[in-house]
Amino acid sequence: MAQVPQTFFDALAVRTWCGLALEALGRAREEIDAINVYPVADGDTGTNLYLTVESAVAAVEAVFAAHEVGSRDPGGPSLAEVTRAMAHGALIGARGNSGTILAQLLRGMAQVLVDGADPQTDAQSLRLALRRAADSARQAVAHPVEGTVLSVASAAADAAGGAEGDCGTVARAAYEGARAALAATPGQLAVLERAGVVDAGGRGLVAVLAALVETFTGETPGTVAVSASARHARVGSDTWQAPRGGPVADDAAECADGVTEGGPAYEVIYLLEADDASVARLRQRLDGLGDSLVVVGGDGLWNVHVHVDDAGAAVEAGVEAGRPYRIRITHFAADDVHTSRGERPARERAERAVVAVVPGEGLAGLYAEAGATTVLARPGEPPVSGELVEAVRRAHAREVVLLPNDAELRHTAAAAAEQARAEGIRVALIPTRSAVQGIAALAVHEPERRFDEDVVSMTSAAGSTRYGEVVVAERQSWTMAGICQAGDVLGLIDGDVAVIGSDVTATAESVLDRMLAAGGELVTLVLGDEVPESVAERLEARVREAYLAVDTVVYRGGRQGALLLIGVE
């Protein structure tokens, strides 16, 4: 169905564009994955781009939802609000080399659209936004390589800069320029030439720009065949076809910045809170450690991507620069494109795995030690369904038990489970509402049991665990326990506020007493970064003094949002 065209680049146009781009990448994801030979032939460029845009869409939709629920502005969110959300969502959700560069492209566009401060941005602003996007993305890459998405983005900006007309005309010019540049990428990169494919990241950007055209014209760009040579892929509105039997495997050993066979063994990605000066030093250090270095972001928050042999050194460099989190380390050895020349032997699937969402680095380590595949949820930034699906795939098992560990993630987890089932994976969703319920479920997990029996046992353990938490109120509000003020210490039991206090220890004791009044055999305490050990010591002493035969275990959860999580089994 054709979209109603947008006249200006306003908040609604941004929302429409993001949604259409996600749909376009969803259709092209597998195709883009299949032609991914550069910088590393790991077959995930399409997936990474999709997850990056999915995160941007979630952030944009959250802004619109907030205005529908409680804003006094009947006109809805502003262009500045929505473009900031788009850029921030892409930044925190960026995956892989391609996703990180796309996040910077969107950030570059957002900088122009926000600075314009006009609720309805015209074609000139769109031209400037595309130019800023291409330039900022190129600057974010330590060693830019032609024949990649950077070339495609520059060509799009060049074509848009010479276009006269409305936003639709500019968008179409950018799309056509990008498509022509994409067809030329095999002539710029030998690895693409030998494999007979175009650049995968550039192919993804063309899909995103096609969505921009549809946003302003209501029409999907028509199919036009463009041949770079007899061996190269053909261009259509949604289809690029690599030659059958193309020698992709023979060229997979070549990776970023001219590095060939025997290149870095790890991909390291993390978000980083740091100032500009620290990030400048970080760039220099990481550039000496490996290749494919891309650092994007600003205003104190950055997304860092690099390929290295020493993953620990890359993370340590981030620690010295600021506070890294959402750290993801991928070892290429399982299907090592550097040593096997792209011939990726199928890794045998495990029979069963557990995938869990966890709220802090400490708990992520605890769950990982127990054998679970984890998805780290930063406070205020819950994972989207694509992240959960990616984790299910990463678990590489025939059967997966999914633990969302948050009542608000129930629908997101259900959507992820359905998508995974469509891919042939047997998934059981246990509706855990807290990480302590997930700990209880994981404690009774036995992969050797029949799947249904294991799920029933885990569900029973989670359901018999009452959960509580101690948090600080962010604003005045009505609660089940009365009116709280900003800064009050709140004690929640099974999701409802039960205690309003001013002292963390006293509030925690009150919550614990109420939870143990109904009985219990084991108390689990998970302390956040801001809580001193003395709180746990006091609670442990309370249990010993007042509740005979009740054991207590204490974990450090890291930056988990809540000051304290409490579980009673």
General description of the model:
47% of the residues lie in helices and 19% in strands. The longest helix has 26 residues, at 45-70. Helix 19 links the parallel strand 16 and strand 17. The protein has helices at 11-34, 45-70, 79-93, 96-116, 123-140, 149-161, 167-184, 190-195, 200-217, 248-251, 276-289, 311-321, 361-369, 385-395, 410-422, 435-443, 451-463, 504-516, 533-546, and strands spanning 234-235, 240-241, 266-273, 290-298, 301-308, 323-331, 350-358, 373-376, 397-403, 426-429, 466-472, 477-479, 482-484, 489-493, 496-501, 522-528, 551-558, 564-568. It is of the alpha+beta class and 569 residues long. Strands 15-14-11-18-16-17 form a six-stranded mixed sheet, sandwiched between helices. A four-stranded antiparallel sheet has the order 4-5-3-6, with helices on both faces. The model is unreliable at 223-261 and 333-346 (pLDDT under 50). It is globular.
Major β-sheet, in short?
6 strands, mixed
Mean pLDDT: 82
| Strand tally | 18
Total helical elements: 19
